[in-house]
Amino acid sequence: MHRSLRPALSALALALLLAAGTAAARPAIVAHAGVASANLHCDPLTSDAREGLAVGAGVDLPLGGQWHLTPELWYVSKGFQGGTLWEILILEMKADVVSVPVLLSYHFPAERVDPRAFVGLATDVLVKAETRREGRGWVDVLDETDTFSWTLVVGGGVRKGRWDAEVRYLQGLTAVTDFDYGDFDDMISEYRKFKDATDTTWVLSLGVWF
Q: What CA–CA distance (Å, rounded) separates 15 from 42?
């Protein structure tokens, strides 16, 4: 097991144990696959969203009434494209994240479908990070990028039978990078100021319940 993933998997295991102790009914497993549209945000950067893959699975644990707790494990592609940094660097970024959200959801009463809204917090572990400047190849910057970050998760979904559709918004709460990469040393003055970048991601997915 990759050492950087151990804290995230430990958090998932702890969430499952705590939730199982409070579950009032039989749990269910739900798996999702879809598309992510991600971007990075900081004052010196303007960029376009990068689309990528998002796959995940969770254990839905009824807590009683209409409330459910859902620990999950996701693999999400993030980054950005068409970026301009400090008005001089043309670049893009690819990032892959293992995310461990724990969601609290409310299932609205309905006759033919099961609609829900949810909110939660995710621990994200960066497992791949690459940047590319205009006219150059991709450079691995994983060792120069923050490995762990926290993300707020909000969204909703609707289930009919075994099938499910969902939309979620992911708002980074901690910095992902400050672009302090060696590949930029030939163009960045030590006096140039910048701010840490946080990410935002939309995920649209289809799922199946077991």
A: 32
What is the pTM (predicted TM-score) of this model?
0.86
Under 8 Å between Cβ of 106 and 150: no
Give the CA count within 13 Å in the CB-facing half-sphere of 58.
Answer: 25
What six digits make up the tokens of 136?
Answer: 């150059």
User: Are 150 and 192 contacting, i.e. CB atoms less than 8 angstroms apart?
Assistant: no
Pairing of strands 28-41, 50-64: antiparallel
For residue 133, the cross-strand partners are 91
Could you read off the pLDDT of 56-95 as tens digits, one per residue? 999 999 999 999 999 999 999 999 999 998 788 899 999 9
Helix/strand/coil percentages in the chain, nearest 5: 10, 60, 25
Tokens 């796959």 map to which residue? Answer: 55
DSSP, collapsed to helix, strand or coil, labels residue 33 as strand
CA distance 204 to 186: 40
